[in-house]
Write a structure and sequence with these properties.
Blueprint: H1 11-42, H2 45-72, H3 75-96, H4 99-105, H5 107-136, H6 145-174, H7 176-195, H8 211-224, H9 226-242, H10 248-255, H11 259-283, H12 290-310, H13 314-342, H14 348-377, H15 379-400, H16 402-405
């Protein structure tokens, strides 16, 4: 049992977990409030999907460069800078959503401001995620990395559970602007916790080389590492088609009729499921046939998305989303462990940046895909179609990448 807490013996790792929790808490609250506010202004599911595209474009463009920077600079300082940028952007959102500001500027101007802030958040995200990934290995001995990864994922899931539900409750009780005040406080706590970590310069001094050549080396490493490439690709296509969270405001408002409070619960349900399974895995780690298990879980994830799309009952929708979180949580642990254990220290920033491109392609671009397909075929058929495509991706992967289903670590 005590082995489950080995990583937490390290003081700086505890500070890191605290900072990560509050940072992800704010981002998940932000995503909930922004999606609801945009839908409230436009009443158009496509406009919600557009949020993902606007965040995706700058994040992907900057991700290629950020990996080069991360591998050559102090990870702690880079994380502080990215947190500071998000704090400033959250303050801008707070001002933009003030009732007096909205009355003065008008809904459409506020909508443009929200989209502009989302664009800037995408830039910050290109640095914050990969820097966090690269920093973990400098806080923990290598033999304790699997346990640290579980806590790393667990802090993300706890924040993801709490954030949307808290955002929905606060929105309904104190209003959107007052909720943003609490988010500013959360980011301040995150920054303070990072400051308590000592500086973490590059562990290996890399030779000076052009940025383009450095980026090419990252691509070559990922391409040659079939395990890393396979897990990244599976996540990319499965979540790209199977993600339904972008359309939750529509389901909450039109189909389930639960309002912002219900939206917060719906957004939290997958994270609750992931947190549940992460707790079990912390106590009883995955010991064999991790690749095969990951494929089974992704297939189950697609099935749950289909069930959610067809459901017209709140409890059934919550169950489907909860189970999608349980199944996705297992695949997240497998993917994260493979990346940490199979990536050398001098490549962590570039590999993490490339992984972030895959993740953002699946999440943010997937959100745009959801909005676009909902415009073409309707919201419910779009979600069912996405779940079906996820199942198809797993079937193709099972036969075309037999090494992935045989993977163990």
């Amino acid at each position: 049992m005590m082995k489950a807490y080995h990583a937490l013996r390290h003081t700086e790792f505890r500070f890191y977990i605290i900072s990560r929790f509050f940072f992800i808490l704010v981002l998940s609250m932000q995503a909930t409030l922004i999606s609801w506010k945009v839908y409230e202004i436009t009443k158009d599911p496509f406009s919600i999907g557009l949020i993902g595209l606007i965040e995706f474009v700058p994040a992907v463009i900057m991700a290629l460069y950020s990996g080069h920077i991360i591998d050559r600079n102090d990870k702690k300082k880079l994380l502080v800078f990215s947190f500071a940028g998000n704090l400033i952007l959250t303050i801008v959102l707070t001002i933009a959503t003030l009732t007096s500001t909205m009355a003065y500027l008008g809904d459409h101007t506020v909508l443009l401001i929200i989209y502009a802030v989302i664009f800037c958040i995408g830039i910050m995200r290109a640095f914050s995620g990969p820097t966090s990934f690269a920093l973990v290995s400098q806080l923990i001995p290598k033999e304790e990395l699997p346990n640290a990864i579980t806590w790393h994922s667990g802090s993300w899931q706890i924040a993801s559970v709490t954030g949307p539900a808290l955002a929905g409750l606060l929105y309904g009780s104190i209003g959107v602007s007052n909720t943003f005040y609490w988010m500013v406080l959360g980011l301040t706590i995150a920054m303070t916790s990072v400051f308590l970590i000592t500086n973490k310069p590059a562990s290996i001094q890399l030779r000076d080389e052009p940025v383009l050549e450095s980026i090419k080396q990252g691509f070559r490493f990922v391409w040659k590492s079939r395990d890393i490439l396979g897990t990244m690709s599976l996540d990319l296509f499965a979540v790209f088609f199977g993600g339904a969270t972008a359309l939750l405001p529509y389901f909450s408002d039109v189909i389930l009729k639960t309002g912002p409070e219900g939206l917060g619960m719906l957004r939290s349900a997958p994270a609750v499921g992931s947190l549940f399974v992460l707790t079990l895995v912390t106590i009883r780690p995955l010991k064999k046939q991790q690749g095969r298990l990951m494929l089974y879980c992704v297939a189950g994830f697609g099935t749950m998305i289909i069930l959610f799309g067809l459901s017209q009952m709140f409890w059934l929708s919550m169950f489907a989303l909860f189970m999608s979180g349980v199944l996705d949580g297992i695949s997240v642990i497998v993917r994260s462990t493979i990346l940490q254990l199979k990536t050398p220290d001098e490549m962590r920033g570039r590999v993490a940046s490339l992984n972030s491109i895959f993740i953002m392609s699946s999440n943010e671009l997937g959100a745009f895909e959801s909005g676009l397909t909902s415009r073409i075929m309707g919201v419910v058929p779009a979600v069912v179609f996405g779940g079906g495509m996820t199942l198809l991706v797993v079937i193709v992967t099972w036969f075309k990448a037999p090494g992935l289903r045989k993977l163990e670590y």
